[in-house]
Amino acid sequence: MASILRDPALAPQGRTKVDFADERMPVLRSIRERLARERSLEGHRVAACLHVTTETANLCRALVAGGAELALCASNPLSTKDDVAAAVQADLDAEVYAVHGCDRATFYRQLDAALALEPTIVVDDGADLTARLHARRPELADAVHGGTEVTSTGVQRLRNMAAAGALRYGVVAVNDARTKHLFDNRYGAGQNTIDGILRATNALLAGSVFVVVGFGWVGRGIAARARGMGARVVVCEVDPLRALEAVMEGFDVRPVREAAADADVVVTATGNRDALGLAELEALKPGAIVANSGHFDVEIDVAGLRETAVATRAVREHVVEYELAGGGRVQVLAEGRLVGQSCAEANPAAVMDLTFSTQALAIERIAARERLEPGVHEVAPDVDELVARAKLRALGIEHDELSETQRAYLASWDAGT
Ligand SMILES: NC(=O)c1ccc[n+]([C@@H]2O[C@H](COP(=O)([O-])OP(=O)(O)OC[C@H]3O[C@@H](n4cnc5c(N)ncnc54)[C@H](O)[C@@H]3O)[C@@H](O)[C@H]2O)c1
After folding, report:
1. How confident is the model at residue 144 (pLDDT cuts 50, 70, 90)?
2. Which residues line ligand 1 (CB under 6 A)?
């Protein structure tokens, strides 16, 4: 199927940006060079549904270098960089289906176009492509060798599918690898969320009351970065252990309804719907900024705001202000979609070097083995260590190794007091 792009002529501009990111992705580059020599993905058709960014383009380069046939579609209508999409299409002999800001119908048309490749490997971010394949093209499932899933929300959806007996092929949970969530979710999303908020609003964080809803990997990163910029950070959590952890990290922990009343900025990072519901939105101070960093646009009840607002106006690029009957004014960033991906540039290349190196190795292992059993699988533990060692080497950082005596001591049980 012919690519769906904004403008193929944007390819040279996109290529320069992809090269810029490549320089910051040394581990992925070394994997690409090896894949090019070994051609270990030959014979595989990869359908990938990812944020169409410079980092994703470098993952695509690695997969095509390994001999895979590739179709790439967008995992979010606002995160697509049209010039990058054009560069992938032009340089990799891949089909690309991604247009920034496309409507819902086009978004799903792009997914369907990627599935037309009849993939043997499905690479997903949020499990939309996997869900679509099962719902619309179930006859393709038996030929799928395996898949990968790169975000928390997608892994949760897949676990729900597996529990319901609906998942028809095996998927490797790349999100759950330590080289992914400990770095990408925490340091990547932590930074890209702040970056998105600042680019969209130019707000001063120092001294502001900054509420983080959800203290998982992403929430921890956002809270730490906001505190580092001088914000007074409040955390809202439903999990008592994570709420306690936030308390011991020195954050103010409060129920969301109470926290909303004082907030200058609220960010959701829960992977759950209505983390910031209409009642909380109505409780905000006039002019409060709200943004979402969770995968889907269900965390802030933007639909409720649209229905109840007495007036709506665009106040800046990516910022819509909703005026409420009670006199409230809420400023919503990026329609409640991922703020760092929509208002900034998603995760930095240096952190995606870890995520996509782990992803590339997981894909290579799927290609090398028998078809994966249906279900959600872990990334092989040696992949984490391999990627972390390569990253440290690339950074020029040496670290200690266990001596044989230490290794034996740690494996023993009889050397006590
Ligand atoms: N913005 C990014 O760049 C980026 C990067 C990685 C992941 N994500 C997405 O961010 C979301 C969070 O990911 P994570 O890795 O932190 O997941 P996580 O499971 O580690 O954390 C989510 C936290 O939210 C809490 N929570 C759930 N519902 C809540 C509610 N109603 N109120 C308060 N807290 C609630 C949970 O208890 C949990 O502690 C997911 O949707 C994930 O896909 C975004």
Report:
1. very high
2. 151-153, 181, 184-185, 188-189, 192-193, 213-219, 236-239, 242, 269-272, 275, 293-295, 338, 340, 347
Integer Cα distance of 231 and 249 in angstroms: 15
Query: How far apart are the C-alpha atoms of 277 and 282, rounded to whole Å?
Result: 9
Distance 272 CA to ligand 1 centre (A): 7
Q: Report which protein residue has its CA nearest ligand 1's atom 20.
A: 216
pLDDT exceeds cutoff 90 at 417: no
Indicate the DSSP class of residue 77.
Answer: T
Torsion-angle region of residue 293: left (phi > 0), alpha (psi -120 to 50) or beta? alpha
pLDDT at 366: 97
Q: Which atom of ligand 1 is nearest to the CA of 217?
A: 16
Phi, psi of 152 (to 5 degrees): -55, -45
Burial (0-12, 13-18, 19+ Cβ within 10 Å), 103: exposed
DSSP 8-state assignment for residue 249: T
Backbone torsion region of residue 202, taken as left when φ is above 0, otherwise alpha when ψ lies between -120 and 50, otherwise beta: left
Mean pLDDT to the nearest integer, 195-204:
98
Q: How far is the CA of 270 from the centre of ligand 1 (A)?
A: 3
Return the ligand 1 atom nearest residue 126 CA.
43
Give the residue from 127, 100, 130, 95 showing the smallest Cα distance to 114: 95
Please name the helix (run of DSSP H) or strand (run of DSSP E) that holds residue 201, with its range, or none: helix 189-201
Model confidence pLDDT, tens digit, residues 297-318: 999 999 999 999 999 999 999 9
Residue 11, helix vs strand vs coil: helix
Taking a C-beta distance cutoff of 8 angstroms, is the pair 67, 367 a contact? no
| Residue 314 CA to ligand 1 centre (angstroms) | 28
The pLDDT value recorded for residue 372 is 96
HSE (CB half, 13 Å, CA atoms) of 88?
Answer: 37
Nearest CA to ligand 1 atom 15: 217
Mutate to test the pocket of ligand 1, among 152, 292, 342 (most ligand atoms within 8 A of CB): 152
Cα distance between residue 385 and residue 376, in whole Å: 21
Report whether pLDDT(193) > 90: yes
Question: Percentage of the chain surpassing pLDDT 90?
Answer: 97
